[in-house]
Design a protein that fits this description.
The complex is a heterodimer.
Chain A (H helix, E strand, L loop, with lengths): L26 E8 L2 H14 L4 E4 L7 H5 L6 H25 L3 E4 L1 E4 L13 H27 L23 E6 L7 H10 L4 E6 L1
Antiparallel strand pairs in A: 1-5, 1-6, 2-5, 3-4
Helix pairs in contact in A: 3-4
Chain B lengths: L22 E2 L8 H13 L4 H27 L14 H12 L1 H12 L5 H26 L25 H34 L3 H10 L7 H34 L11 H28 L7 H31 L3 H12 L3 H13 L7 H4 L2 H28 L14 H24 L5 H7 L29 H4 L3 E2 L7
The chains are: A alpha+beta, B mainly alpha.
Chain lengths: 210, 503
């Protein structure tokens, strides 16, 4: 059943391939292909149990529960976004109090002075009238930081990746499920890792060169 | 009913029946993930149908008209519009409020329905969000040009300047600047985040060099990593949670432009919820207006099913009832308040010189949505299309009625003045529709119209504990020796599908 297509490097002399030999291409890692979410779930549990550290699953959509099965720690993103939102709250409030309630002179790239606007007899420090803008700035900063930090923590944008050299891997965004194990993992031994992946019921296994 | 692959997606199949204990399927006749990819991507990969070119030509023509009207306005002044004293806001702000309202459905679908775990949203959220962004672009055009001297538009923002002048933050007009620009930015970011995995799908399928580079660049190197998905899902949830109060706040702030003033007919506390309900009402009507031809032309009937349209029509019915309630409550309060000016403003709306606009509004917004009580009508494509157009027209007139009738006849009869639109007013209004249409047609042509990854994730096959009841449907699946999901087939509600094998 498993059609194993192993793209081998020109000189498969060494088992430990994380140290490139002269004249050989550096091996980045190995990918194994699976058919269904259930298959990759089972396989991921075993890869984790085997003690690999630098490995990942690649799926066309987030498979429910797979991150837990892989042992991915819950991200700290919400805490950071809260911080950004709180910064936005203070910034929004500070901006309005400075520009409309005080006559302070501060340096913000240029010297600027606030202007105490007296509008329809409202107090100079009219917090209720400032709430809409405070809310908007809070949401704006939280949303931008949620996306920006998510991309940053994911190491994106990264337009080139060794995985993109694989024709087979094109289907990772379509209908196939892949496990990748990197050569820099201390437990990565090419022949043994390949045998291990095959034992998980992978449909195909491919070596990825950097 | 058997459908061949060539007619797939072009034939309507009824999936609106409710059976207790069963969950209706959201994707018809497809059990493999690759089929979804193909159905959605083929729209951009194949040349578009003739109708697309016709619609695009018309839209571009209208954009040209918009360009002429706006250029003439900028070079001459706002006097080219039919504005006068006291009607200093008319078509410009009517169009602004109309387009912001249209823009509410997209983020409501993507944020609020996401938090409520309404999985049917996945079929329609992508293009509803696109619609939101394009509608807010059209909306932003109007305040931009109605300031007259557009080169002073930067006065709207707190930018240090040589006059040492700041915007006045206690004005609702300034809140509006912040609300609409925040809404636009957050909607755009939300939409783009959803697009990243699907752009990667397009990249991986692309055969042309240009497409590979373009989709590759905008997909940021997404490779479906589960570690990435984990943070992605958290970020998406956070965005939904942030966008939910934002959706409700935007039209509330827009309504403050009116409610905070002293003008009879504007100065009412009901405005924020009334505007939000109206915005959702008109937004969903626009989604139906766009979805009906789009699924027809591009063969997406198995992904945007009758059930999706039925659900949207139910939302139109609910929000239509809210809008009708608001109209009657406004009238009641005008009488109950005992305020002479308020009473006059409302009687004048219904029976004054703009009576026709008022009754167009009532018949389109109160009467037509009531037809959606009948399932026959909710699931009839031609009828819902016509009704959604009525709602669009009615909601445009609602804003016209609120703005123009209140301004034209305020406190002092000697200062009353009627508003009559000029050709520039009308050209700008239709031109904005052209701009909206152009952007939407380009979106249909080049971007995945349906959230591919999200739709896949809602399929029963996407569940790692999915029972093997659909064994026969998994073409090429042969290795299910993991003993996984045993017994699940009996416990899990079956997904009903006209083509599903009986089990």
């Amino acid at each position: 059943m498993s059609t194993t297509a192993t793209t081998t490097s020109p000189a498969p002399r060494a088992d430990r391939v994380d140290v490139p030999l002269p004249g050989t291409q550096r091996v980045w890692g190995m990918i194994a292909e699976f058919d269904t979410p259930a298959d990759i779930m089972e396989a991921a549990k075993k890869v984790r149990a085997e003690g690999f550290r630098f490995w990942d699953c690649h799926t066309p959509f987030p498979v429910h529960g797979l991150d837990k099965a892989m042992g991915v720690k819950r991200t700290i993103l919400p805490v950071l976004v809260f911080g950004a939102g709180f910064t936005g709250l203070l910034a929004g409030l500070g901006l309005q109090i400075f520009t409309n309630s005080l006559s302070l002179k501060i340096w913000a790239m240029v010297w600027v002075t606030g202007y105490p606007f007296l509008i329809s007899g409202k107090p100079l420090l009219s917090i209720p009238a400032f709430i809409p803008v405070v809310f908007e700035v809070t949401v704006l900063l939280s949303a931008l930081s949620a996306v920006g930090l998510m991309l940053l923590m994911n190491g994106l944008p990264r337009l080139y990746h060794p995985l993109f050299t694989s024709k087979r891997f094109l289907r990772a965004t379509d209908d196939r499920f892949f496990i990748s194990i990197e050569a820099r993992d201390p437990r990565f031994v090419r022949s043994r890792t390949e045998a291990f992946l095959r034992s998980l019921g992978a449909k195909s296994i491919e070596v990825i060169e950097d | 009913m058997q459908t061949t692959s060539s007619t797939r997606g072009f034939v309507d199949r009824d999936n609106t029946a409710e059976t207790p204990g069963e969950r209706a399927s959201l994707v018809l006749g497809m059990h493999r993930f690759g089929e979804i990819t193909h159905q959605v991507c083929r729209v951009s990969e194949n040349p578009p149908p003739m109708a697309w070119y016709v619609a695009f030509a018309v839209s571009i023509g209208l954009v040209g008209l918009l360009g002429v009207a706006v250029t003439y306005l900028v070079f001459t002044g706002v006097g080219v519009w039919g504005l006068n004293n006291p009607v200093m806001w008319a078509f410009d702000i009517t169009n602004f409020v109309f387009w912001v309202g249209i823009g509410h459905a997209g983020t409501l679908i993507s944020a609020i329905l996401f938090l409520f775990r309404q999985k049917w949203r996945t079929g329609i959220n992508r293009f509803a969000e696109a619609m939101t962004i394009f509608a807010v672009i059209c909306a932003g055009l109007f305040p931009g040009i109605h300031v007259g001297r557009v080169w002073f538009a930067y006065w709207l923002f707190p930018i240090p300047n040589q006059m040492e002048m700041w915007p006045q933050f206690r004005s609702p007009l300034l809140w509006d600047v912040f609300a609409v620009s925040t809404y636009f930015t957050v909607s755009l970011v939300f939409w783009y985040v959803g697009l990243i995995p699907d752009l990667a799908t397009m990249r991986d399928r692309a055969t042309g060099k240009v497409q590979q580079i373009a989709y590759g660049f905008f997909s940021l190197g997404w490779r479906g990593s589960m570690r990435h998905w984990h943070r992605y899902e958290v970020a998406y949830l956070l965005l939904a949670a942030l966008a939910t109060p934002l959706v409700l706040s935007v039209h509330s702030v827009v309504s403050f432009d009116f409610a905070v003033s002293q003008l009879p007919g504007w100065h009412t506390t009901i405005f924020p919820p009334y505007f939000v309900a109206g915005a959702i009402f008109s937004g969903f009507a626009m989604v139906v207006t766009l979805a009906v031809p789009a699924r027809e032309l591009f063969g997406l009937k198995d992904l945007i099913t009758l059930r999706h349209l039925d659900n949207m029509n139910k939302i139109i019915l609910v929000t239509g009832c809210m809008v009708g309630y608001a109209y009657s409550m406004e009238f009641f309060i005008a009488w109950y308040s005992g305020a002479m000016y308020e009473k006059f403003a409302f009687v004048n709306r219904a029976f004054g010189q703009y009576w026709w606009a008022y009754w167009i509004m009532v018949s389109c917004n109160v009467i037509t949505p009531q037809l959606f009580w009948f399932k026959r009508i909710r699931t009839s494509i031609p009828i819902m299309f016509v009704l959604s157009l009525f709602v669009n027209v009615g909601m445009w007139f609602e804003r016209f009625v609120i703005i123009v009738t209140s301004l034209a006849n305020d406190f002092l009869p000697t200062s009353w003045h009627d508003f009559v639109p000029t050709w520039v007013d009308i050209a700008t209004m239709f031109g904005a529709f052209g701009l909206f249409g152009t952007l939407f047609l380009l979106f249909c042509r080049y971007l995945p119209m349906i959230a591919i990854a999200e739709v896949k994730a809602t399929m029963p096959e996407a569940d790692p504990h999915h029972g093997h009841a659909h064994e026969g449907a998994h073409a090429g699946s042969h290795d299910h020796s993991h003993g996984h999901g045993m017994g699940a087939a009996g416990l899990r509600p079956a997904f009903r599908d006209p083509e599903a094998p009986t089990h």
